[in-house]
Design a protein that fits this description.
Layout lengths: L2 E4 L10 E2 L5 E2 L6 E4 L4 E3 L5 E4 L7 E2 L1 H20 L20 E4 L4 E5 L5 E6 L2 E2 L2 H8 L8 H7 L7 E4 L6 H17 L9 H12 L2 H5 L4 H7 L1 H4 E2 L3 H12 L3 E5 L4 H11 L10 E4 L13 E5 L2 E6 L7 E4 L2 H12 L6 E5 L2 H11 L3 E5 L2 H5 L1 E3 L16 H4 L12 H7 L31 H9 L2 E3 L13 E3 L16 E3 H10 L7
Parallel strand pairs: 6-14, 6-19, 14-15, 15-18, 19-20, 20-22
Antiparallel strand pairs: 1-4, 2-3, 5-23, 7-13, 8-9, 8-12, 9-10, 10-11, 16-17, 16-18, 21-24
Helix pairs in contact: 1-4, 1-5, 12-16
C-alpha cells in the first residue's frame, strides 16, 4: 500500500539520495515521505502516446522565432493600423519582457506576474516596473487581481479584460503591448485611464499566424519559415527518433495531435523528423484546435492533401485527419488496443492547451515540456538520465558527478538570456523581499508560489526540459510525479532535477512564499 522512504535532508553540501527501488531525489523539504502508487509514474503503463508538435517534438530556435514574430506584428501595426515606427525598436532591448507566464491587464496597460492565489507578485506599466505603492493603489491592500478566478477556472484569456502569454508563439506580444503603452503615455504626457490597443495587436497576430497564410505565402511569418527552415527549427536527434520508433516496436499506439494546420505541420515534420515522418505515427490529427479539442464534439474531417473535406464517423489506423475531439479519439484508441479504458499519455508544452484540459477534461496523463527548466539549470536527482550524446561510450558525466551540484544545458546562451528574466524572475517562483510584506509571507504552496508553477504541480504528472531527457531511459522507469494539493510533493515531478530557482528559494528563504 504505502512505501515509506526516509530522506536525510542536507543543504550544504547538497547530496543526491538514492532509494533501494532505484528511484532518486534530492533536497526534499520533509524528512519522510509516505508515498503510494499514485505518486509514481511509469510510461510503460500507458497504452497510447500522444505528442504535440510545435515546441514538443519540434524544437524551435526561440530567439529567431521571437524576432520574426515581433517583426511581423510590429510591421502590421505600423503599416495597417498607423502605429508609431518606434515599434521597430530592437526586441533585444526589452528581452526581459519576453517572458512566459505574464498577464496583460489590458484596460490598465499593466503587465502582471501572479501568485497561486491571484496576488500580484510583480507588475509593470508598459516597460516601467511598478512600485509597491502603485500596486496597492490599483489592486487594493490584498493585491489580489480582480479577474483571477476566471483565469484559475478557465486557463484562458478573457476578451478585452486580460490576455495571458504562456507559450512561445505569443510571448513577443508582451513586448509589443508594453511598448505601445509607453508610446501612448509619452504622446499624451501621462498614463491613460483606459487602453484600447489590444484589438489591433491581436489583429497583427492573426495576420501573421492564421493558417491560410501558409498556403497564401502571406503575413510575413510563414514565408520566412518556408524560405529558411534551418534558421528557425532544430532537427530531432537520432536518439529521439529511435525512441519514437521503439514505442511502436513495444506495441504502443503513437499519435500526433497538433493545432497546426496540415500544410504547416507537414513542413515542420519533414524538416525535424525527415521525409519518412509518417512512419513514426499510427495516426495524425492536425488543426485540433486545442484546448477545445478536449471538450467540444467537433467531428474529424477527412483530408485530401491539404484540404479539409467531409466529416468522418470511423477513424482508420494510419489515417490523417483534421479537427475532431478527444472522446472519439479515445474510443478509437480503445478499439485498436483492445482496452475498454486505455491509458493515454500526452506530451505538450502549453499549460493552457496541452496540460490543463488534458488532465481536467479527459484525465489523460500529461508530460509537460518546459524549456525554462533547462535555462535555469537544476541539480540532478534522476541519475539514470543521460545528457551526454557524444561521450564515446563513457559513463555519462552526471553519473560520474552525481554527488555534486550539476547544471546541464544545451541551450544557446542568447536563448537562455531570453528565457531568464532579471526583471520578472523565475517562471516557477518569486522571491521578492519579505520585508515588503512582513505579515504575508507564508502559504500552502511554499515552493512554486507563482500561478503557473502551481498549475504545473496540479495538472502535470511530470515535467521535463525536452524529450531528449528521457530517450535513454527504459520505458518502465519509475518517476516521482507531482502531488496535487500537497505542500511537500509539489516539486517531485521535475525530471531530471528540480529547477535551481526553487532549490535556492527554499534554502535562502526557508520555504516561505514572499510577495511584493
Amino acid at each position: 500500500m504505502y512505501k515509506t522512504f526516509t530522506v536525510t535532508v542536507k543543504f550544504v553540501p547538497r547530496i543526491l539520495c538514492r532509494c533501494k527501488t532505484g528511484l532518486s531525489f534530492s533536497d526534499l523539504s520533509v524528512h519522510t515521505l509516505a508515498m503510494d502508487a499514485a505518486h509514481l509514474f511509469s510510461l510503460a503503463d500507458s497504452d497510447a502516446f500522444g505528442f504535440d508538435l510545435d515546441h514538443t517534438l519540434a524544437k524551435f530556435n526561440l530567439v529567431e522565432n521571437f524576432r520574426l514574430t515581433y517583426s511581423c506584428v510590429a510591421e502590421y501595426l505600423i503599416s495597417e493600423r498607423g502605429y508609431s515606427s518606434e515599434l521597430r525598436q530592437d526586441l533585444n532591448i526589452h528581452k526581459d519582457f519576453c517572458t512566459k507566464g505574464l498577464v496583460l491587464d489590458t484596460p490598465k496597460g499593466n503587465i502582471l506576474k501572479l501568485a497561486y492565489d491571484g496576488t500580484v507578485l510583480r507588475a509593470s506599466h508598459g516597460t516601467r516596473m511598478m512600485q509597491r505603492s502603485e500596486v496597492l493603489e490599483l489592486y487594493g491592500d490584498t493585491k489580489v487581481w480582480e479577474h483571477f478566478s476566471y483565469l484559475r477556472d478557465n486557463f484562458n484569456s478573457d476578451g478585452n479584460n486580460f490576455r495571458i502569454f504562456e507559450n512561445y508563439f505569443d510571448m513577443p506580444g508582451i513586448v509589443i503591448s508594453a511598448r505601445i503603452v509607453d508610446i501612448i503615455d509619452k504622446k499624451a504626457g501621462k498614463p491613460q485611464e483606459k487602453y484600447t490597443f489590444w484589438e489591433d495587436v491581436i489583429s497583427g497576430f492573426i495576420n501573421a499566424y492564421r493558417y491560410q497564410s501558409f498556403s497564401e505565402n502571406s503575413g510575413g511569418y510563414f514565408p520566412e519559415l518556408k524560405k529558411s527552415p534551418e534558421l528557425y527549427y532544430r532537427k530531432c536527434s537520432a536518439k529521439a527518433k529511435n525512441w519514437l520508433k521503439s514505442l511502436r516496436e513495444q506495441k504502443k499506439f503513437v499519435f500526433l495531435m497538433t493545432s497546426s494546420f496540415v500544410d504547416f505541420a507537414t513542413h515542420t515534420l519533414e524538416f525535424v523528423l525527415g521525409e519518412d515522418w509518417k512512419s513514426y505515427f499510427d495516426l495524425c490529427v492536425f488543426y485540433a484546435r486545442k484546448p477545445s479539442f478536449f471538450e467540444d464534439k467537433r467531428p474529424f474531417l477527412r483530408l485530401d492533401g491539404n484540404l479539409e473535406k467531409e466529416p468522418l464517423t470511423d477513424l482508420q489506423l494510419h489515417g490523417h485527419y483534421s479537427q475532431g475531439n478527444a472522446e472519439e479519439l479515445s474510443k478509437f484508441i480503445g478499439k485498436v488496443t483492445g482496452k475498454s479504458d486505455p491509458k493515454i499519455v500526452y506530451f505538450g508544452d502549453s499549460v493552457r492547451s496541452d496540460v490543463f484540459p488534458t488532465k481536467s477534461k479527459v484525465n489523460w496523463n500529461v508530460v509537460l515540456i518546459i524549456e525554462e527548466m533547462e535555462a535555469e539549470g537544476y541539480t540532478l536527482h534522476d541519475v539514470n538520465v543521460s545528457r551526454d550524446a557524444d561521450n564515446d561510450g563513457e559513463e555519462p558525466r552526471h553519473k560520474r558527478r552525481r554527488h555534486e551540484d550539476v547544471c546541464l544545458s544545451t541551450l544557446d546562451p542568447l536563448e537562455k538570456d531570453y528565457l531568464l528574466s532579471k526583471e520578472w524572475g523565475s517562471f516557477f517562483t518569486d522571491k521578492a523581499n519579505p520585508r515588503l510584506d512582513p505579515d504575508n509571507h507564508k502559504g500552502p504552496h511554499r515552493h512554486m508560489n507563482t500561478f503557473w508553477g502551481w498549475a504545473i504541480s496540479q495538472y502535470s504528472d511530470i515535467a521535463i526540459p525536452n524529450i531528449e531527457y528521457i530517450t535513454e531511459l527504459p520505458l518502465d522507469h519509475k518517476f516521482w510525479s507531482f502531488g496535487p494539493g500537497s505542500r511537500s510533493q509539489d516539486m517531485l515531478g521535475f525530471h531530471p532535477g528540480v529547477p535551481l530557482s526553487l532549490q535556492k528559494y527554499e534554502q535562502e528563504n526557508d520555504g516561505c512564499v514572499t510577495k511584493i
